[in-house]
Amino acid sequence: MEYADLLIENHGKVAVVRLNRPKAMNALNDNMMNELGQALRGFDADPAVNVIILTGSEKVFAAGADIAAMANYTYADTYPGNYIGRNWEHILDIRKPVVGVVSGYALGGGCELAMMCDFLIAADNAKFGQPEIKVGVTPGAGGTQRLPRAIGKSKAMDMLLTTRMIDAAEAERTGLVSRVFPADKVMDEALAVAQAIAQMPVSVAMQIKDAVNRAFETTLTEGVRYERRFFHAGFGTPAQKEGMAAFLEKRKPDFDGM
Ligand code: DAK
User: Fold this and answer.
1) pLDDT (tens digit, 9 = 90+) per residue, 126-167?
2) d(CA 137, CA 122)
3) Contact residues for 224 (Cβ-Cβ < 8 A; gap 6+)
4) One pLDDT digit (tens) per residue for the chain, 258 residues
5) Torsion, CA 50, CA 56, CA 59, CA 62, rounded to 10
6) DSSP secondary structure letter of residue 253
7) Which residue's C-alpha comes closest to atom 24 of ligand 1?
8) Strand locations in the chain (E)
9) CA 97, CA 182: separation in Å to the nearest integer?
10) Rounded to an integer, what distance in angstroms lies between the CA atom of residue 244 and that of residue 113?
11) Ligand 1: distance of its center to the CA of 194 in Å?
12) CA distance 147 to 158
């Protein structure tokens, strides 16, 4: 499948989706977000793919919503037209793991999109920011909600109100990203991480993702109850039979197709 604003790579059970509008610093527009939804849904439904990597270029993940495209929007274009809601959040419906890999800038909507991934790996040149206030709007794709949950209220308020960018080291220290690698190695390292996940049973990876995301939406008691149902159901699956048998037989498990 060819896309105007994305590049796709296949690495066995790992699919890589690259945002690709280099002349506009990968600014996010309707076409790119429609294509992104299409690509992600396609891989989610593809039994040959277990893990998806979402990334940009070496210089920029995405510099935010396309300011040129939205500068003349009216309220009628945004609220009735469901700007953002109509096509930015397809990623939240993806059930397989989505690993975000950020090199360079992830600003505004770019930072918000990155935060919709399941976890983030950063290059040491990564910079995260929410500079929307500088262009006269609030964040509109979850920045005021996911950033404080990720890095705490004080740091989030600082970034959102002053537009201060944080670098990869601060992003790792505050928990926004899970790992940082040198920029020239980050894709190889991220692919190794994704391949490791891809060897696990994809059905269990999907359940873990579902349960962890539930932690942000419910009470602890209900969340643990939700997790327990998956754990109990696991005893009716080939993945549990293979995983535990392989351990006892001191061999590597083969979770292919599970
Ligand atoms: N949109 C459109 N074009 C952009 C862009 C953007 N966000 N960011 C960069 N570009 C374009 C530049 O205009 C320039 O185009 P040409 O002049 O070459 O035609 C080209 O990319 C290269 O950019 P620079 O020349 O500026 O490159 P530098 O390396 O000097 O600087 C930069 C890189 C990323 C620091 C800088 O470009 C920058 O500050 N960009 C803007 C970052 C920003 O403010 N991002 C937040 C965007 S606002 C809403 C929902 C959501 C949102 C809003 C409303 N509602 C529900 C209502 C979300 C808003 C945002 O994300």
Assistant:
1) 999 999 999 999 999 999 999 999 999 999 999 999 999 999
2) 27
3) none
4) 899 999 999 999 999 999 999 999 999 999 999 999 999 999 999 999 999 999 999 999 999 999 999 999 999 999 999 998 899 899 999 999 999 999 999 999 999 999 999 999 999 999 999 999 999 999 999 999 999 999 999 999 999 999 999 999 999 999 999 999 999 999 999 999 999 999 999 999 999 999 999 999 999 999 999 999 999 999 999 999 999 999 999 999 999 999
5) -130
6) -
7) 25
8) 6-11, 14-19, 51-55, 60-62, 98-102, 105-107, 119-123, 127-129, 166-167, 179-181
9) 23
10) 37
11) 30
12) 11
C-alpha 185/C-alpha 207 separation (Å) is: 30
Which residues are catalytic, by number?
65, 109, 112, 132
Q: Distances in Å between the alpha carbon of 107 and those of 48, 62, 165, 196, 250?
A: 32, 6, 8, 29, 47
Which of 28, 66, 67 to mutate for ligand 1's pocket (most ligand atoms within 8 Å of CB)?
Answer: 67
Q: How far is CA 244 from CA 54, 203, 237, 250, in A?
A: 32, 16, 11, 10
SS3 75: helix
135 lines ligand 1 (CB under 6 A): yes
Q: Is 112 in the pocket of ligand 1 (CB under 6 A)?
A: no
> Which atom, in ligand 1's list, is nearest to the CA of 67?
1
